[in-house]
Design a protein that fits this description.
Elements lengths: L1 H22 L9 E12 L4 H17 L7 E7 L7 E8 L1 H4 L5 H11 L4 E11 L15 E8 L5 H10 L9 E7 L5 E8 L2 H6 L1 H4 L3 H4 L4 E9 L12
Antiparallel strand pairs: 1-3, 1-4, 2-3, 2-8, 4-6, 5-7, 5-8, 6-7
Amino acid sequence: MKSQEAVVAVVVLFVIASAAIAQAPGPGTARERGPYARIAFLRPHDGDSADFEAGYIRHLEWHRQAGDPWTWYGWSIWASSDRQRWLVYATFGHSAAALDAPVQPAEDERDSLLNVIPHCEFTGSGLYEFLPALSKGSTEPTPAPRAELTTVELAPGASKAFEAAIAKGQANLAEETLWYRMIAGGSVPRYVRLRPRAGVAAVLDGAGESTLPEDAARLAPRVTIEILNLRPTMSYQLPASR
């Protein structure tokens, strides 16, 4: 009887373990590629920029030690009407399943509360979908020294017409131009466009391409263009420049 009970116990444990493995994200889930991106903004407290940057770098070290497979971009806003020196942090190219399987989320939050949150304010965090039909390039931007960030807020119900207007010019794009549609995180419809560039001169040289087509512009009550500086020390696992 005891041997039979032992066999039953082993079988039960095997079934439980198998169910847990089936329900847990697979080892490659966090690395699955897809069209989704997270883009967020942090505003350092006045007079606290140095401590904020040091704390953020410590937090990225936590990601390294935790074996985070994601890439995290960090940009400082260099030219803006009201967001000067804010940090833009973002991660690109994820599947929906990967978004459900970030590295150690509870520990990530705990380390962020320790090293980052005391020195800044979260001012926005959005989930976006990459739009290849409007873009030139892949879902993940080139880690260029500068980037032009355009935020477009549309009139309600204008998304379909706006995307059609932008898509007309896609074949004529000369440089990397990446469009993303907001899914959650703020008022919609909203779009962002990233244009990685080698420097300010390259941004200015392409100023003509920065202008939205007329039939798209009339659908957008608010368009904001900002210039970003890439911060390699405040980024994690950046890909090689293409």
